[in-house]
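Input sequence (127 aa), recorded before submission:
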Amino acid sequence: MDHPVFETVKAGNKMLPFLKTKRYVLKESGSEVKKETIYFNKMQLPGLMNALSTQTFSGVKPIEIVSAQGGCYMDVVTAGDRQFAAVQLFEYVPFAFYPVNDMYQFRGKQAGDFLAYLDKCRKTARQ
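Predicted structure, token format:
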């Protein structure tokens, strides 16, 4: 996660003080972030790109999350307080995945709306 928005923090372990682990935090709030990769069908890419660029998620049809590589994926970085989300889309073009867009960053209400949309996609995938 090399990006100027995040920083690496080395944290000690109470049980094993000599063992240091890396955590990534959002520089502006200090909230811990986690990264997730979500694969989806390539046919859904245009609709998702439109939703991300307009930051409108309420009426958008959930994407179909697939367990294996589905032609496209998104890397999502979220803050523990759900007040930040960063998304970058990737598309498979023979032999490799390439970025489709620059990284979208959402804060506050937009981050919450996007994360609610992802929760809806996950719920649909489980059914």
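Checked by second reader. Residues 41 and 113 are 22 Å apart (CA to CA).
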